[in-house]
Design the sequence.
């Protein structure tokens, strides 16, 4: 559905891939990598939230993860990023199993997670928030970090204008730009996005969706996109996975899922 999609919004600048070095992944930045979740079981206490979930995301593709509230979508991203421990199963980043690693180790391996809720630190400035994204870098020349920041300021021009302002002064759309830019500064190969359009005006939501397409097509990022807005997600995705009560009930090309009337009615709400 989206292999020929090209999008650009007014918030998005040029993409100078590989402008900065110093990542702690031995040159992993800029190289596409597949992500395979195989038989994943995870939960909270006695509650099993994911029951043998398998999801395949091809290198450089967008995979939409859909389902009703409580289906296990957010838990899937948390398990992949190490925020919760997988009880069983594998999480393969380019054939290397990262299950059981700490969140910091997973970031260094090449997976960045943008959680739901525009998680900025409001007391810090925009630039201080962005610098958090480079905490996984090895120590290196200051020029590399400056160049990396300038790359994201070129991509997100509203942030450049507000770099010295507290993050609390940003609009909802600008906060979403900030958390995505911060994740990109970790130089990931896989980007996990949890409800990036939540609470945004339709125009801003369209800009965010265009940005996701650009990051996949132009930068080669593998993107796992959790979205409540199934219609918008399937419109930009290559593949779609539908979860229900912690299990995969459908996995197919995004265009096929978008035209499956019964599936849309029972699980996707449109």
Sequence:
């Amino acid at each position: 559905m989206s292999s020929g999609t090209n999008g650009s919004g007014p918030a998005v600048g040029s993409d100078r891939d590989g402008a900065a070095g110093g990542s702690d992944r031995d040159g992993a930045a800029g190289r596409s990598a597949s992500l395979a979740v195989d038989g994943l079981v995870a939960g909270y206490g006695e509650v099993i939230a994911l029951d043998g979930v398998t999801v395949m995301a091809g290198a450089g593709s967008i995979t939409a993860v859909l389902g009703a509230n409580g289906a296990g979508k957010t838990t899937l991203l948390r398990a992949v990023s190490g925020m919760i421990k997988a009880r069983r199963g594998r999480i393969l980043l380019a054939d290397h199993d990262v299950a059981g690693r700490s969140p910091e180790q997973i970031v260094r391996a090449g997976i960045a997670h943008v959680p739901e809720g525009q998680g900025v630190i409001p007391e810090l400035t925009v630039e201080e928030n962005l610098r958090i994204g480079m905490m996984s870098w090895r120590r290196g020349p200051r020029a590399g970090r400056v160049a990396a920041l300038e790359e994201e300021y070129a991509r997100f021009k509203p942030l450049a204008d507000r770099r010295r302002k507290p993050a609390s002064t940003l609009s909802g759309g600008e906060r979403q730009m900030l958390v995505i830019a911060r994740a990109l500064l970790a130089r990931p190969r896989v980007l996990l996005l949890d409800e990036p359009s939540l609470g945004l005006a339709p125009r801003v939501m369209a800009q965010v969706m265009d940005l996701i397409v650009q990051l996949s097509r132009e930068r080669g990022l593998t993107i796992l996109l959790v979205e409540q807005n199934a219609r918008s997600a399937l419109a930009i995705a290559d593949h779609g996975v539908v979860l229900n009560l912690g299990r995969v009930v459908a996995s197919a090309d995004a265009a096929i899922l978008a035209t499956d009337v019964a599936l849309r009615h029972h699980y996707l709400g449109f």
